[in-house]
Amino acid sequence: MAKSKLDSVYRRMLITRFFERGWGKPENLQKLFQFRKIISERNTCFPLVPKDYPVEIIKEEKFPDGVVLEGKFLTPLELHLPGVVPKAAQNAHFQVILPNKWTDSAKPICIHLAGTGDHFFWRRRNLIAKPLMKEANIGAIILENPFYGSRKPDNQVRSNLHNVSDIFVMGGCLILECLVLLHWCERNGFGPLGVTGLSMGGHMASLAATNWPKPLVLVPCLSWSTAATVFTTGVMSQSINWDMLETQYYSDGKYCERLSKMVTVIDDAFTAGQTFIKNFNQSLIELKKDIRNVKQMQNDKLAGLENNSETQNEANNSLTKLMELILPKPSLEEKIDITKINWWEREALQFMRGMMDECTHLKNFSVPYETSLIIAICAKDDAYVPRDGCTSLEDIWPGAEIRYLDAGHVSAYVLHQKLFRSCIIEGFERAKKMYATYNARQQEENLEKTLSSKITYHELLEKYMKSC
């Protein structure tokens, strides 16, 4: 997979530094790893959030095209893992964007999850939610991420998550919070329902969708099957202090002796590294061949010249300049790539890969209820979300549709918002056809259950007589 130069340049322009305080408390990581086994299975995760989970609407504002509601509720993760969620992030805040009038009997609503750095509601509301409402009469719920916006701890700067464990807290919160919001939608008569997001938001949407036991539109944009490569081989890995993480890993036996045994790398951790080394070595062979050819050409040229030192010096200078063109000085990115030969052997990186796979790899989660409602959009040249060495979405979710853009991560985000919206609209058009059939079938099943559980007067009398 070719990597976008724009992605690399853009990443170097940012000053975001991740995980400056390390891995996180060992006891919290242990709780999160254990809890992952519960929330990754639909039959054990779904019962964690009651259908009548309390949600408070605190504000309503009307505008020409519709209405905006604001609400909040306590994140269910705080109830199941007390003390793991920072106090500032414990209340989930969200906005609901609804049209003044629905065009048909369906009342579609899509939950929009935030990508990295997407604080508060403005960006998603104006770039995707409102246009979707105008174009296709689709309502929206914009959920604020833990550690972002009003849910950001006071001592956190911008999107600079302090600990690796914060990513898993964020994911656990969003999975359960989406269940709360989907239940709220059903109680208020909305449907069909869906969930989407860009980049990190796309992956969080994928995780959240695995635990809803009914058809659900899912449109993950610019994400893939695991977050492991994002933090180990993608350009974001350059924003991590690996020396500090490795020092902490070895200084506390709880990480290297206990926690490392609780995580499993799903895909071969060395595949991408081996691919890089193979390609790198092949490039060196070809490069040496080119240099030999250039030298031979230059020697042939020198042989025809008189034995003049000035002429020879000029020729040698030309050769030097030509060599610089063929073998330029390595850029920052190339220096980082070259060190990967040894970097892949670092235990801190392998621990990171194992943790990310354990808690984010879609192979560890249930397959969404209806994969025909999944349309995933990926960038072919994505340097933020590398796909090398990762199990493909097609293999994990048979029946899902994967579409590829000829773009990098940044250019896809900037240039293809309309495409993302059109895929969401297409997903909801599919869902509308399925929605009426599904609801009719559910009503029939509920009626059958009611009839089969009814006790007639004679059966009740007989039961009473026996008890006497």
What are its keywords?
18 helices, Rossmann fold, seven-stranded mixed sheet, alpha/beta, 9 strands, 468 residues
Provide a descriptive summary of the structure in words.
Residues 277-308 form a coiled coil. It comes from Stomoxys calcitrans (Stable fly). Keywords: Coiled coil. This is Protein ABHD18. The protein is α/β, with parallel strands linked by helices and 468 residues long. It has one domain: Rossmann fold (3-Layer(aba) Sandwich). Helices cover 51% and strands 12% of the residues. It has helices at 5-13, 26-39, 42-45, 76-80, 122-136, 165-187, 200-209, 228-232, 242-251, 253-258, 271-303, 309-326, 332-343, 347-360, 393-396, 409-415, 417-453, 457-467; strands at 56-63, 66-74, 91-99, 109-113, 139-143, 193-198, 217-221, 375-379, 401-405. Strand 8, helix 15 and strand 9 (401-405) form a beta-alpha-beta unit. The model is unreliable at 269-281 and 318-341 (pLDDT under 50).
Number of domains: 1
Span between termini? 78 Å
What kind of sheet is the major sheet?
A: 7 strands, mixed
The top level CATH class name: Alpha Beta
* Rg over C-alpha atoms, rounded to the nearest angstrom: 27 Å
Q: At the third CATH level, what is the topology name?
A: Rossmann fold
Query: Order of strands across the biggest sheet?
Result: 1-2-3-5-4-6-7
User: Spans with pLDDT under 50 lasting ≥5 residues?
Assistant: 269-281, 318-341
SSE-based structural type: alpha/beta
Fraction of helical residues: 40-55%
Helix count, per DSSP?
18
Strand content bin: 5-15%
Give the integer mean of the pLDDT values. 83
**CATH architectural label:** 3-Layer(aba) Sandwich
How many β-strands, per DSSP? 9
- Mind telling me the CATH superfamily name? Alpha/Beta hydrolase fold, catalytic domain
Morphology call: globular
SSE pattern, N- to C-terminal:
HHHEEHEEHEHEHEHHHHHHHEHEHHH
